[in-house]
Amino acid sequence: MASRCITWHPSSYLPPPHRRSQCSCCSSSTSPATRRSVTWLVYLNDEWDAQAHGGQLRVHERAADAEQVVGARGADLQIGWLRATSTLGEQPVFLDAGRSDDSGNCVLYVCLPSGGSRDLSQPFHANPLLFLSGGDLVARRLLIEREADAKRFHLVDAPKSAASAYLPQPGPEGADGGEQVRDISPTAGTLVLFDSVSLPHEVLPSVGRDRLACSGWFHEHVYPPGTHTAVA
């Protein structure tokens, strides 16, 4: 577990959407690589007035409960959602980067209640442009096979560019209409824990006061490609 103390000065903020899914290596060269799994925060601000001082942690939760475990499935990180409908539940979408196919080594898939999985895409080669150039739209048109799945698909983080700040911003329901916003006041003694991969978040600007907190991350092992369940 890693930790640190943070001071946010007045007007400091963390823009949306933000999530932590980075991998890191331990100090010893022989230690296995790890990935941030759960983020924790303990706020240290006495007599904090959220209306006057701002500085809330804003999390962009899914409005519907997920049908399956979120964040990661063994070596496979969650990269998106299939939005809930009136007849279908919210489903996390995972990226399997360990396939062996001439067309590519990556496949998007969802888990089934039976314990199996269903592929949403044909194998493809990893390319950042697939996600950075157009986000949801590119993934829906180029990767997702079924039209019904494409209509429900949404990346966990919608990619942002320098021009994003000048474009119309989505409301609290998010770009795909499946989110809800929760603001958490940084009041002393408040403990917050959330999944580092599946929950985008931002920090609103603080006004007139420093915002103090201790934060840390629980880490999990980075499993070899092809591992689809956590190994004890």
From TrEMBL:
Protein's GO biological process: cellular response to hypoxia
Keywords from the named record: Vitamin C
Superkingdom, natural source: Eukaryota
One Pfam family hit: 2OG-FeII_Oxy_3
Keyword Hydrolase appears in the UniProt entry: no
A molecular-function term among this protein's GO annotations: peptidyl-proline dioxygenase activity
UniProt xrefs under Gene3D superfamilies: q2cbj1_9rhob like domain
Prolyl 4-hydroxylase alpha subunit Fe(2+) 2OG dioxygenase domain location: 165-219
InterPro entries assigned: HIF_prolyl_hydroxylases, Pro_4_hyd_alph_FE2OG_OXY
Keyword Membrane (UniProt): no
PANTHER family: EGL NINE HOMOLOG-RELATED, HIF PROLYL HYDROXYLASE, ISOFORM C
Name of the protein in question: Prolyl 4-hydroxylase alpha subunit Fe(2+) 2OG dioxygenase domain-containing protein
Source organism: Haptolina ericina
